[in-house]
Design brief:
By secondary structure, the protein is mainly alpha-helical. Helices cover 47% and strands 6% of the residues. It is built from 7 helices and 2 strands. The radius of gyration is 17 Å and the shape is globular.
Amino acid sequence: MTLSQYVTLDEADAYLESVLDTEAWDLSTDVRRTKALKQATRMIQALNVPDFVDPVPADIIAATVEIAIRLLDGYDADVEIDGLAVQSLTFDGLKQVNGNNEVQLHVLAGIPSAYAFNILRGYMPNLNTIHLSRTD
């Protein structure tokens, strides 16, 4: 059975007692927090990780809450991916080159938090078979 939400509001609040920069969570309503936790759960499940049931592991609770905070803070995966795609831009003789050619795997996976993604990598199948390709 797949859970629709890995973390309750009480569990999220308990986790966040020791975390800095939680304004997006603190200023949000319970309805928005619950939606963010459910969306974070769906994002994690999209990574083809095992199904987690009660009790959900503490590191999965942490990853879920970290993702939820980024979602409440306005994270937009499409904007992030578009930002990775631009390597250089030329306009009327002016040229801007993106000096950071390193692909951020968490962005490509649709996970707004590198910290959460690093937690989740331990649960992802076939870590050694990730293949990335770039087209011009």
